[in-house]
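Recall that a protein's primary structure is simply its ordered list of amino acids. Everything else, from secondary elements to tertiary packing, is in principle encoded there. The following example makes that idea concrete.
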Amino acid sequence: MQTKWTSSLAGLCLGAALIAAAPAHAQAPKPVELTFSVWIPHSHILVANFMMPWAKEVEQATEGRVKIGFLPKPAANPVGHLDAVRNGVVDLAFISHSYYPGRFDLMKFGILPFSGNTAESTSVASWRIYDKYLRAADEHRGIKLLGIYGHGPGGVYTTGKPLEKVEDFEGLKLRIGGGIQADLSKVLKFNAVVKPAPESYELMSTGVVDGVLFPPESVASFRLDGAVKSATLFPGGLYADLHGIIMNPKAFERLSPKDQQALMKLSGEHIARLGGKAWGDADTAALSALKAKNVVFQQAGPKLVADVKARTAGFEKEWLDAAKAKGIDGPKVLAEFRAELKALEGTK
């Protein structure tokens, strides 16, 4: 028979057990904290209007289980960010494919001269083509590519007069970042000064270079408006550049399957649209700001365009040869890329 004393003792024991177990149930799992290193200021449009908002989206989609923190200082120089991610020094970063000659040759399909007219169309079309045709080539081995995005049409911004003819390139000292810009220097016969973008102001203000190859946004972001006097623009751009948001594979494995799925849902074309729109909006604002600073803008004339096209025709052939060597139907890929661009830009 249960006595009053045994009933009370059982109640006390049950209460104690519940109290002891409560903290274990109430304590939320510790979030996975990921580090993101950028080699441009946090105030730069790409960080403030694209990467940081994207990181917030990831945190919200995972209900706070994944938090992405931006390091106060870059973990390496611009080129070193590929190895920093691959070696696990940081979990996330962005890279410019043009900074790695010979490593991302297939990515040049999206940055050939006279291609995209906006950053967003270039970004989205490039991602779709990469995802469909080029992923299997595994140029991003050792890292996890979450997405790619690109800038708008690249032009020539100089401290002198606009370029009137193709011969005006000859002898100019222009800062470039590498990649297809280096290819341009060879065929257009200008003197290339290969330096990271953040060094552009010092190079121009001290007269080390006569100008830069940049989209409008970069001229404004790197505060070159006081040094630039003129700009020569080309239909579809003289060149473009593609960036990649990359992640350390082991860092990705630290996430639960549910959170991996959430992250990937916010990657791919989503990154392309976010990054492309941020860069495109900045291009539009920069053009207005530069014109207000009395920078002289000139559209390349038909003869200059034709001459540049003739000199750069070999770029496409080189890409087609590289694609063929990897078993890729290059003509089909380029045709589909250009069709994507036209559809996205609403042109015929």
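The chain is about 45% helix and 15% strand. The two ends are 92 Å apart (CA to CA).
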